[in-house]
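Please check the following.

. . .
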Amino acid sequence: MSESIKVASVPISRRDSFNARDTHTRYLKPFDSGDIKVLLLENVSPKAVEILKKAGYQVDSYTKALDKATLIEKIKDVHAVGIRSKTRLTEEVLSHAHKLLTIGCFCIGTNQVDLGYAASRGICVFNSPFSNSRSVAELVIAEIILLARQLGDRSREMHDGVWNKVSKKCYEIRGKTLGIVGYGHIGTQLGVLAESLGMNVIWYDILPVMPIGMSKAADSLDEVLGTADFVSLHVPETPETKNMIGARELALMKEGSYLINASRGTVVDIDALAVSLKSGHLGGAAIDVYPAEPLANGPGFESALRNCPNTLLTPHIGGSTEEAQRMIGVEVATAITKFVDSGASINAVNFAECDLRAIPSTDMTTVRIVNVHQNVPGVLRQINNILANYNVNKQISDSKGDVAYFMADVTVDDPKHIGTIYEQVRAIQENIITRVLF
């Protein structure tokens, strides 16, 4: 059953909202921004909290992920939720999110969210795919040097009270070849940093990409594996990349070479990697991501890679720098406020990207109609038939998959007509969610 409240004599159900605001301002806003509730999990940057509070929203922030039962209870009454990589927003969880308008993933990936189901509920998802690129690239450079000098093992030995001064199989990285798999924002930055240290760079990507600096494109993944002294993975999690580095691929790598994975945990067959390290075929590895990761800090981490020789294990900290988290906080929090306040869906992951210029007049009989509907023929015609009796200043519509997004700025001569428009649009059979912004 849906709960209803009344705002300006217009009912709001769990999947429909009518938003109005003070008639003395020209900025688009919900009816009362103080009624907008935001749930932030997993220690999202204080900068994001600051931006969302400045927008007037009620912000409830937690340092950790929540268990499923608590998450379901918390998400029932919020309009926006912000997460990082540990929280799973599945169909089951999202089915309880009766008021949710938007999800902010304060990280690169969005595989922790059921994007299709979210879109079908009119929930727009944002992320920050590039803000931590430099942080990840710098971590990989550090790991390359640490692996080449076996510094992880030497440090552990010293902490155990063992003095073990050796130079065998310890190398400079100058003149060595770095192979980058996935030549996107992180891969290109990594290549530039590696070249500045005197490394040769080759890379492979499934898309045609312009090389930067002196780097060279390889014809295949196998070529990179067989040529590089260090192989660093920077690919998304897809069915095609699952276990893309397994026993066969590890065997193709040069004897004594090194593997680095700071992309997604499912990309590498961990058991096969452990075998290759213990046999001595690989000279070492640095792993920052895992197929299954703990929900909270503390003891209990298990992996076949524990105690493998010259193996650096880090707890998914590639983007965990103050600078990266601040930039991510700004980008995602700003996207959330723009979507809630003005309907802008630019850089959305699961929605068509739409935006309109701000309403230029202080005449508050001009409102913005925001509508999400099923992407089937005839809906746009129905909406335009409803708006035909009014002055439509501008409008935009686009679709992505099974969901379409529509916005229009409409001027009415009588404020009472606003409620009429709202009721008629949301009565369309294919309607998912309708909002009116002043």
Remarks:
- DSSP finds 13 helices and 18 strands in the chain.
- The CA atoms of residues 23 and 364 lie 6 Å apart.
- The chain has two domains: 5-130+323-437, 133-313.
